[in-house]
Amino acid sequence: MTRDYGHYINGTWVPSESGRWFETTSPTTGEVLARFPQGTRGDVQRAVDAAEAAFPAWKRLPPPRRGEILLRAAQIMRQRKDELGALVTTEMGKVIAEGKGDVQESIDFLEYIAGEGRRLFGETTPSELPSKFCMTVRQPIGVVGCITPWNFPMAIPMWKVGAALISGNTIVFKPASLTPLCVATLVEVFEEAGLPPGVWNFVTGGGSTVGMEIVEHPRVKAVSFTGGVPAGKVIYEAAARLLKPVEVELGGKNPQIVLDDANLELALDGILFGAFGTAGQRCTATSRLILHEAVYDQFLAMLLARTKALVIGDPLDPRTDVGPVVDQAAGESIMEYIAIGKGEATLLTGGERLTGDLYERGFFIQPTIFATEHGTRISKEEIFGPVLSVIKVRNYDEAIRIANDIEYGLSSSIYTRDVNLAFRAIDDLETGITYINAPTIGAEVHLPFGGVKNTGNGGREAGTSAIDEFTEIKTVFVDYSNRLQKAQIVDER
Known about the structure:
37% of the residues lie in helices and 21% in strands. It is an alpha/beta fold. The protein has 2 domains: 3-250 and 456-476, Aldehyde Dehydrogenase, Chain A, domain 1 (3-Layer(aba) Sandwich), CATH 3.40.605.10; 254-436, Aldehyde Dehydrogenase, Chain A, domain 2 (3-Layer(aba) Sandwich), CATH 3.40.309. The strands form 6 sheets. Strands 15-16-17-14-13-19-20 form a 7-stranded mixed β-sheet, with helices on both faces. Strands 10-9-8-11-12 form a 5-stranded parallel β-sheet, with helices on both faces.
């Protein structure tokens, strides 16, 4: 029997004042998995009230104690990893190995960020005056809003929730409407771990109502958003009108460069995983393959052979390489781009929606490869599906120029045995993440994640910078001279 969820406000599952529902379904089978309420601005108001009331006590709880709750949540998730991984695959559609990887990334980050409860570093520095001590301390912002996408339905929520909670904030959270069940299950995990009522509040519904009320509510002091560029710009502009800090992680059009001296077998493994893992539905997916002309024909033949052998099917079957895209709307958008590609480039393989048997119940798209010139729409616009553009270049300099000539700047990759070129690429590639002899995907939780240009506003999630967006820096001066001292003012008497 399908379960009906409510909003999770002040530690209790409660109905929406709207009385309306939406369903979350499996992209593989179309099966209804659960029903969630269509939230309203009034529902968000109740969640903000609860988060605000819970904030003083949560802020006063020593950070190491907050870390213990996060660690217990990680331990619960580790015990339930197989079950949770299957849930990710069932609700989102990525293959089971990646579904479990989504859960493992969540566990890894919670274990990592729990340790920040014993750090939360500030700075100490000498004063210019005698008998005076100077330092900075980190303080929580207050009630923060978190809005997350569907493609990493557990890992990205945990990046935001873990960092916000360890910093001492309380949360009003809106999940993607395509994957609310994954996040609702995480809420239950944190409840079991002992998170106090009101600290994490969960409201489902549309972006124009629930999402924008979170962004525009005057008592939500900061917003963290991951999603598409158009929505990110709307959120960024709305928050700016309130002088509210907002962190946005947006799109990508990530290049993998393969030079003439590269290990081609290694580069081939990288491009297959980078381009077609998660059916291309990653902000870090490899959507451009920039090939040196000396290896172009050889590598392309290798790539086409391996791509045609990929198994497309039930993502719960461990033998499957590529599952469905998340829903029909996403599939139709991808197919529109494929149609554009057929008109402006050369289709090398794929390009069709699969039909028959299992494929009728989900939206399965063949891994698709185009040979194209730089500057076509498919080579510059984010498609967010299993579509790869291959571009031939003459040398390293042309490869870098093409890699950078894009509005995005999230991830990049270069395959070469030349250590000098590898280190030049680290400087030359205009992205927040660069991989040497590895694909454009594969972030590790103890390193900052984010990009430049239209990929975001320059902030970073995860890693050593995870708590930056969820803390304020307070500067403290302690004068123990027992007399008035005036900085920058010379007393000439």
